[in-house]
Specification:
Elements (H helix, E strand, L loop, with lengths): L11 E2 L10 H7 L3 E7 L2 E6 L2 E8 L2 E5 L7 H11 L4 E5 L5 H4 L2 H6 L26 E5 H9 L11 E3 L3 E6 L2 E7 L9 E5 L4 E9 L14 H16 L13 E6 L5 H23 L4 H6 L7 H4 L8 H18 L10
Parallel strand pairs: 5-6, 6-7, 7-8, 12-13
Antiparallel strand pairs: 1-2, 2-3, 3-4, 4-5, 9-10, 10-11, 11-12
Helix pairs in contact: 6-7, 7-10
């Protein structure tokens, strides 16, 4: 795993953005410090409340990948302004999770979208801002649907540019930006964002270096889709060399939580998921219940690194989600070898 100075070459800026002059309740919700880590000359990782966000900026504007939780929107906006005075042109939502999309309306409202959007490509000469229009919010069609189903009624917080194809591509600040759909992984609405020339990938909730990945079965997530997504990400990185790479440098990966990663970290994470999936699948194929499978400790060897006995996403929660998603796969293929849930 990369260390905190990203191999010794990327500049580290720690920006504690604390708001003043607000009512006590608003200040309590928004006073979380935002740390800023510069990964490339034009790409930054912002961290607030433990959640990592991505930012790319240049002469044509700024792109924000996941604006963060609603309560931190003012702090995140202030951190963005401390990095660049260019207007925010795009916000990209990698899922519908509130901790990633809560700031949609507030952050988009500080930006200006681009006129002349033709298809999925911005070309020279059409980057005139539409005065009074907020930044565009990009996400899969499933993100839009999930936000509405989860009760989001503010139209300003919903994606304005949605897609159902495998990939949404556009060009800004001299580089291609790929929003790549990864369905049925963490949820049914996932995507990752690759800044091609800068060679930085933002994974959203697909990759969490602090605990087990959240498999949101209720919103279409599944362990098989999670593993498939990590495999596709690794293939994308291998097939996407960046011309600005220096010696001994490779693709930098921003997870939803934890330090910046590289391809070796992705491989280790994929292998962990594969091992747990195989152990749970073995139990299902032998008629074991969830309780029996959990008693066999299918996460053995990884508990110290990723496990938690309690909290919002415990080891029990993870095993149960893997079990339920594999049961759903069994039913979809007409098999019924699984034992009954306790």
């Amino acid at each position: 795993m990369l260390n905190s100075n990203v191999g010794g070459w990327a500049g580290l800026v720690l920006a504690a953005v604390l708001l003043g002059g607000l009512p006590d309740t608003a200040a309590a919700a928004s006073a979380a410090p935002v740390s800023v880590l510069q990964l490339r000359p034009d790409v930054y990782m912002l961290t607030v409340d433990g959640v990592n966000l991505g930012l790319q900026t240049g002469s044509e504007g700024t792109v924000v990948v996941n604006p963060g939780p609603a309560g931190a929107a003012q702090a995140v906006s202030a951190a963005i302004r401390s990095i660049s005075d260019q207007p925010i042109r795009f916000i990209i939502d990698t899922s519908a999770d509130a901790e990633l999309t809560g700031g949609n309306a507030a952050i988009a409202g500080t930006g200006q979208n681009l006129a002349g959007l033709a298809g999925f490509n911005l070309v020279n000469g059409v980057d005139t801002p539409q005065e009074g229009h907020a930044a565009s919010i990009v996400g899969t069609q499933a993100v839009l649907q999930d936000l509405i189903l989860r009760g989001q009624t503010d139209a300003a917080a919903l994606p304005t540019e949605t897609f159902t194809r495998p990939q949404y591509d556009f060009y800004l600040n001299g580089q291609g930006i790929d929003v790549i759909a990864e369905p049925r992984a963490h949820s049914d609405a996932d995507s990752v964002v690759l800044f091609r020339r800068s060679d930085v990938l933002v994974t959203g909730a697909l990759l969490d270096m602090t605990h087990w990945p959240v498999i949101d079965v209720a919103h279409g997530g599944g362990i098989n889709g999670e593993i498939d997504a990590i495999n596709r990400i690794m293939n994308t990185l291998v097939d996407s060399p960046a011309p600005i790479l220096r010696e001994n440098e490779g693709t930098l990966v921003i997870p939803v939580r934890g330090p910046v990663c590289d391809q070796a970290d992705l491989l280790a994470y994929r292998d962990m998921l594969w091992a747990v999936r195989e152990r749970v699948q073995y139990g299902i194929e032998h008629g074991k219940s969830l309780a029996q499978i959990e008693a066999s400790d299918p996460t053995q060897g990884y508990n110290t690194r990723y496990g938690a006995d309690g909290g919002a996403w415990s080891t029990h929660d993870f095993i149960a989600a893997v079990y339920k998603s594999l049961q759903a796969t069994e039913r979809a293929h007409g098999r019924n070898n699984a034992g009954a849930e306790p």
